[in-house]
Task: structure prediction
Amino acid sequence: ETGVTQSPTHLIKTRGQQVTLRCSSQSGHNTVSWYQQALGQGPQFIFQYYREEENGRGNFPPRFSGLQFPNYSSELNVNALELDDSALYLCASSRSGGLGYTFGSGTRLTVV
Amino acid sequence: GQQLNQSPQSMFIQEGEDVSMNCTSSSIFNTWLWYKQEPGEGPVLLIALYKAGELTSNGRLTAQFGITRKDSFLNISASIPSDVGIYFCAGQLRETSGSRLTFGEGTQLTVNP
Result:
């Protein structure tokens, strides 16, 4: 079975720009979560999608938004990028119920 | 955002030594998870604990779910160089907060051959 794949692997954006990150979930997984991992810290929960709807959100502003598609893949969109948005963005998929998370390798976003 | 208190922050040990790290929280969880992350990769699940008091092993790794549901520890026995990486604990409270994971800040493990 294929794992979680994320694209792109690295990205450099300018403050104020918008960015879209993509995630393909593991085969058989219908729930996708996104996490932000700043350098030297643990991942922080952004939000989760189940059946194409947001199903839980962490302490992130509305300029962080997402989508889940019928094939369970997902996008994370961030508008009006700020320097503090520089981080590793991780996607994790699981079956419903949230057991057995599988993480992707992440997208390293640098905002300059 | 909420973080778990994970200690120690870093460890430098000799190959063959045993390692112990722990995680505490002010909130209860009904699942505790331990992950390992290597450079350029996402976290990889090592051990999952689902019941208070549960003690689970995975090869040289042993983890326990604290009785109070607010803590967990991970032991690594007879460390080897490939154990190098960052170890994260994560708590999950499935009933009220979906299935989100709350992570600790990690323990950086260095093993000298």
About this structure: Chain A has a mean pLDDT of 93.
